């Protein structure tokens, strides 16, 4: 019998993950059955179980894949030269997020994975790992912010990273759940809160208000 190539095995694995992602987005984790995945993928139960033994394994694999994609995107942005301001970084990341959040987009799985992690320890482990990894990337960004003078030398980088971390999940939730969020408005808000400029080493200062002449 001819040996199955690694490329074929990887294509089949990805075929299953793509089908699972579509099912989870359509019906949610809890309402999706393995039979749904079999049907969507066009594969037999035996073919699917060869790669994934349970729905939990599919969830973990999808979470890991998404984490890798997000970290790759953030790595590219954080290591840009010159260093992007927080608003510029968020602009580039939210552009990518928006492109991944269509009717069957992978970003739609994120809130489901977060909620599942609260009640399912099997799902919680990869979600925690993903969150910790992304927060560490924000810390790396904070280190670069300090290096260019956007943060004071004694800044608590862990605290900065924890605060910046909320910018992207905040966009995801509003983008998916609230119809009134305009991305450009969100970016203006970030720029207002983090008014850094490439032309200065410290945040831009607003002109001081002056009293009307008597």
Structure report:
This protein has 214 residues and is mostly helical. The protein folds into two domains: 1-53, Arc Repressor Mutant, subunit A; 55-193, Tetracycline Repressor, domain 2. The longest helix has 27 residues, at 121-147. It is built from ten helices and no strands. The chain is elongated and about 60 Å long. The mean pLDDT is 86. The chain has helices spanning 6-27, 34-41, 45-49, 55-78, 86-99, 109-117, 121-147, 157-165, 167-177, 183-193. α5 runs parallel beside α9 and α6 crosses α7 (121-147). Helices cover 65% and strands 0% of the residues. Residues 33-52 bind DNA. Residues 10-70 form the HTH tetR-type domain. InterPro entries: BetI_C, DNA-bd_HTH_TetR-type_CS, Homeodomain-like_sf, HTH-type_TetR-like_transc_reg, HTH_TetR, Tet_transcr_reg_TetR-rel_C_sf. GO terms for molecular function: DNA-binding transcription factor activity; transcription cis-regulatory region binding. This is HTH tetR-type domain-containing protein.
What name does CATH use for the topology of the largest domain? Tetracycline Repressor, domain 2
Q: Which class best fits the helix and strand makeup?
A: mainly alpha
Name the quaternary structure.
Answer: single chain
Number of spatially distinct domains: 2
Uncertain residue ranges: none
Rounded to the nearest angstrom, the radius of gyration is 21 Å
- Can you say what the CATH homologous superfamily of the largest domain is? Tetracycline Repressor, domain 2
Q: Give the mean pLDDT.
A: 86
Helix content: 55-70%
Order of helices and strands: HHHHHHHHHH
User: What spatial form do the alpha-carbon principal axes imply?
Assistant: elongated
- What is the overall number of helices? 10
Summarize the main sheet.
none
Distance between the termini: 97 Å
Looking at the overall shape, the CATH architecture of the largest domain is Orthogonal Bundle
The fraction of residues in strands falls at under 5%
For the secondary structure, the number of strands is 0
At the first level of CATH, what is the class of the largest domain?
A: Mainly Alpha
């Amino acid at each position: 019998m001819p040996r199955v190539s690694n490329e074929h095995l990887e294509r089949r694995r990805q075929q299953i993950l793509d089908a699972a992602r579509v099912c989870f987005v359509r019906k949610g984790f809890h309402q999706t059955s393995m039979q749904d995945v079999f049907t969507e993928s066009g594969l037999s139960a035996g073919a699917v179980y060869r790669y994934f033994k349970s729905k939990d394994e599919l969830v973990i694999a999808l979470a890991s894949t998404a984490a890798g994609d997000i970290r790759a995107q953030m790595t590219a942005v954080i290591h840009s030269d010159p260093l992007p301001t927080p608003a510029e970084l968020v602009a580039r990341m939210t552009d990518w997020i928006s492109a991944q959040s269509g009717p069957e987009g992978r970003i739609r799985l994120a809130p489901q994975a977060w909620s599942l992690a609260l009640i399912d320890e099997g799902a919680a482990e990869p979600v925690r790992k993903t969150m910790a990894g992304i927060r560490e990337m924000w810390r790396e960004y904070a280190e670069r912010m300090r290096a260019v003078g956007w943060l004071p030398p004694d800044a608590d980088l862990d605290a900065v990273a924890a605060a910046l971390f909320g910018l992207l999940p905040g966009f995801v939730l509003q983008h998916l759940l609230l119809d009134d969020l305009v991305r450009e408005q969100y970016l203006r808000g970030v720029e207002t809160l983090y008014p850094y400029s490439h032309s200065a080493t410290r945040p831009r200062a607003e002109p001081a208000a002056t009293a009307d002449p008597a």
